[in-house]
Amino acid sequence: MDIFLVKSLEYIFQQKKDALREKNKRAAQIEIDERMKVQGKFLEIIQHKGKHVAFYFVSQLNKFKEKQRLRKEGKNIEPELVRSGRGPTERPSLGKQPHFLFILADDMGYHDIGYHQAEILTPFMDKLATTGVRLEQYYVQPVCTPTRVQLMTGRYQIRYGMQHGVVRPPQPDGVPLDEKLLPEALRKCGYNTEMIGKWHLGMFTEDYLPQNRGFDHFMGFYTGSQDFYSHNKCFSGMCGYDFREATAGQPEVIRWDLNNTYSTGVFADELEKRLSKMNPSEPSFTYLSFQAVHSPLQAPRKFIDQYRNLKNRKRRNYNAMVTAMDTAIYKVVKAYKKFKFWDDTILIFSSDNGGNLKGGASNWPLRGAKGSLFEGGVRTIGFVHSPLLPVTDWFPTLLQLAGCKTSDYGGKPLDGVSQVRQLWMGSNGNDHARDEILHGLDPLNKVKNTVDPRQFPIIKNRTFSVDVEGALRWKQWKLITGKQSPDQNRWSTPPTTMYGGAKTIFDKVEPKKSKLVRLYNVVDDPFERNDISDEHPQVVNVMLTKLADYYDASVPPRYPAYDLRADPALGDGVWRPWRLTPAQMRNMTAEDKKKYSQETHVGSLRLNY
Known about the structure:
CATH superfamily of the domain at 99-425: Alkaline Phosphatase, subunit A
Radius of gyration: 27 Å
Strand order of the largest sheet: 1-3-13-12-2-11-5-6-9-10
Strand content: 5-15%
Helix content: 25-40%
CATH class of the domain at 99-425: Alpha Beta
Number of helices: 14
Largest sheet: 10 strands, mixed
Number of strands: 18
């Protein structure tokens, strides 16, 4: 009996052993087949589309497999914060106030940096990012001015009426003078403040200029864009030169000597000159606001030649501009080291909005573009040398790192929250400084002749309606209301199409024309492909209520008409402030002040004249 039992157990064991061997054999064969399939696809892509596309394909496949593995293990795969190497998490405790170097690129696409597998050469930015903290849940505004004003105030633009569009050169508009800006707050706690580059926050009177809004020194231009070499800006038939330097409390100097010089390189050179005159033992805040990579698509020939094999001219020139900016940043950091600033410096890099697809940029694989409330318009490149992090949060974050109290900065309540703990001290996946971001809310952009068949009774008696363009992020959810233009609604094709053959992986674009409320889970669906508003009505109701609350708390948008008195041709051919400040009007009679205000529509800006 015992022998029979032993034989039976041996037989069962052998059966299981054979079955396991067969299973492992099949698994090994499947793995070999998959490897051969990938290898064949890789060789095919190399042959027909080039090695850049082939390596991009492999990298994306590996990322997909890794996410599948993490999902099976039940782990959180949200790309909150990417740390590697010696970064801010390994800094010694700050024994003194650090220097801040905040670098802002203009219109740089989410895809357009080396560590996002782009074909663009950005070796120095890649090094800074991979030895620091990469921000992969980093949000800005869809266009230039709103991002810059949030950075400078730490407050949503709905608080002061700048939620519609950008400040145009002849518009009598700017950041209201009762808003305290970041450089003013830092100067209050002992910082020297420096700005180099693009302002774009108003210039119609001298009070609105950067050197009068908290910066000790400014070198750059006031308008939103210009020729990279001639530094001329033309808008609505008005043309003028716009390159100057100014120190607070002193008249500005027009830098005619920099005509026919490339602005990206000039900004790096001018900052080096400033550093040579500054004391590294005194804390400094430097705002380096590049013109690149905004149109026009211009770059020195030596950078364009690096991409001479690209057939698409826009992509070729755009890539060259990015590489030129990477070189300029290298020069800036080299200067920081040369003049003994670097060891105590915190460097922050950001773009102001998503890339402009018509200007050679790529936000692949995100949906949308500059001007859009989809991820491709508002989610961008950022790193520090995050958790859910909008540009609004830099204001209180920098104040905390500087040892300043936000309650003492002298301004209005902030919408931003400090991210110091998440960035420098680490956090687990559930420890976030915020779980909500208002991406945009613009009552001047309303849908006409389109009605959503759903009623949304939750906001029936509210002033907010779903035909208003708006977007809100709450936890993993993102709600979009109103309508996006077709050019800003779509996904960009991979940049590899620029030199042959690749197609978008998406076969359709929603939303349907009649749908004015869309809901996405941007953790599980970061490409915003699947509208799930019908499946989650309770989430939609919560988020519509939040948007309605923001709407009720907002200031009506201020977007004044163009003022023909701004035309540089009426003066010396330079873009300058063209309206009088309150101080300059001090000696006017009450009747003359009233007449002047009526002539220049100053009253429409609700200024205290």
